[in-house]
Amino acid sequence: MDMKPVLAILPPKLRESTEGLRTGALEELRLRAGRPPTAVLDGKERILPGCAEAVTSRMLEEIVSAATNRSCYSAEASLREGYVTLPGGHRVGLCGTAALRESRIQSLRELSSVSIRIARQVSCAPPELLRRLDASTLILGPPGSGKTTLLRECVRSLSDGGSRVGLVDERGELAACRLGVPQLDVGAQTDVLTGCGKSEGIYLLLRAMNPQWIAVDEITAPEDIRAMEEASYCGVRFLATAHAFSPDELRRRPLYRRLRELELFQRLLILSPDKHVTMERMA
Questions:
Q1: Under a CB-based contact definition with an 8 Å cutoff, are residues 187 and 165 in contact?
Q2: What's the predicted TM-score (pTM) here?
């Protein structure tokens, strides 16, 4: 994990305190205007050592300016979505006052919070399980269980194994592209579409990139399923994630019941809260 891109955007005092942390345990830096800066270490948020002074709005603006290489205009699209991606895949998330146009966020002003999430390439699936990815697979697990991480790992495994994979990275969390280059390893034969909704992205990849697999994170809407259904008629296989604690809970939800009726997925990868992974047939 390269912390240099994160340290480079911090003011000197924050940089010094962050350098003294156990970087292997650091998950986030959270900076809130009017409050002392905090760090999330091993899942627990605490005040950053040696930094009892409150964060200022000016400090937040300077951090965002540094994150965009002093050119907020060039990062306007991602800033509108509330984040900036740093080299290495680290993400700077933003909160503040939203400026709206036709009910859509155009920009964030008067910043109130900045969250810097530390990127890690984590392996959580046994290699023998990844080698069994031969049919459309749905990754199932509760929030925070590591579904997105496992999805990225499956994409990389298929891609490096010789398959063409189209990845709809709606929020930039899977590949963390910066200037078109994935900052996280998603495989040598993966084409990444960022900043686009899942249904639109599926259609675009199908038209433009001739994928053998299409991967999306978090199926949440009927239009996602309609797009997947149409793409399946072209012989494309899918990797996707869904929020559910068990296959039984999945079956009880109307949206996911439609997935079963269409038989879009043949495999389930089930993540337990302790990140243990098992594979089942989709029943």
A1: yes
A2: 0.78
Of 118, 107, 145, 172, which is closest to residue 241 (Cα–Cα)? 145
Position 25 scores a pLDDT of 82
Residues of the chain with pLDDT under 70: 1, 73-74, 107, 121-124
- For residue 208, count CB atoms less than 10 angstroms from its CB and return exposed for 0-12, middle for 13-18, buried for 19 or more: exposed
- CA distance linking residue 8 with residue 19, whole number of Å: 11
Answer for the pair 115, 205: CB distance below 8 angstroms, yes or no: no
pLDDT of residue 72: 72
Structural domain 4-117, CATH architecture? 2-Layer Sandwich (3.30)
* Residue with token string 């605490």: 46
Separation in Å, CA 138 to CA 30, 130, 141, 226, 267: 33, 13, 10, 16, 6
Q: Using CB atoms within 10 Å of the CB of residue 260, give its burial: 0 to 12 exposed, 13 to 18 middle, 19+ buried.
A: middle
Here the tokens at position 41 are 């270490």
Contact 184, 87 (CB under 8 A): no
DSSP category for residue 103: T
- The DSSP bridge pattern shows strands 38-41 and 26-32 to be antiparallel
Give CA–CA dist 31/28, Å, rounded: 10
Q: If we measure between CA atoms, which residue out of 198, 203, 208, 273 comes closest to residue 239?
A: 198
pLDDT of residue 124: 65
Q: Where are the domains of the chain?
A: 4-117, 127-281
Please check whether residue 211 is in contact with residue 187, taking contact to mean a CB–CB distance below 8 angstroms.
no
Q: Tell me: domain 127-281, CATH 3.30.450.40, correct?
A: no
Cβ(212)–Cβ(237) below 8 Å: yes
